[in-house]
Amino acid sequence: MSLILEVPKEYGYVLAVATSTIFVNTYHKIISSSARKASGLTYPIPYASQEQAAKDPKAYKFNLAQRAHANFGENLTPFLTGLLVAGLGYPTQATWAGSAWVVGRFAYAYAYTNWGPSGRLYGYVISQLGKMAITTMAVLTAWNMVKVA
């Protein structure tokens, strides 16, 4: 038995949220490249050594920016997968939860880079609440599609 997939008319909002992650990534690139330039660390060095970071606040800030960007990259693929699946079953709710994740990731990037690991809490919590909602909706959407088939 085949399944006919109908994309909800509100799915465009889901795609807009997915597209907005490009701007989060660009923000990370700007932060990282600015911190790299200020620190004097050249390519291909991915991080300042522990000794360099301990001696030079600019090298430490570069490490923070790099780590925040890496964390974003680690979380982007699961988020986008969940968002695109969840949006098929719950487009409006997925849009709001996805927007929370995006706002949280902007806050995470800014706070982590400027205040270190302790500064990331608010952005982390906001993004994780969005991610948990997205994950739940994605699982329910998949379940409902499997149940029908």
From TrEMBL:
Q: Where in the cell is it found?
A: Membrane
User: What is the protein name given in its UniProt record?
Assistant: Uncharacterized protein
Specify the taxonomic lineage: Eukaryota, Fungi, Dikarya, Ascomycota, Pezizomycotina
Q: Which organism is it from?
A: Xylaria flabelliformis
Task: List, alphabetically, the SUPFAM superfamilies matched.
Answer: MAPEG domain-like
CC terms in the record's Gene Ontology section: endoplasmic reticulum; membrane; nuclear envelope
Q: Would you say which domain of life the source belongs to? A: Eukaryota
Q: Which UniProt keywords apply?
A: Membrane, Transmembrane, Transmembrane helix
- Which Pfam family, just one, is annotated for this protein? MAPEG
- How is this protein situated with respect to the membrane? Multi-pass membrane protein
What are the recorded GO MF terms, alphabetically?
A: glutathione peroxidase activity; glutathione transferase activity
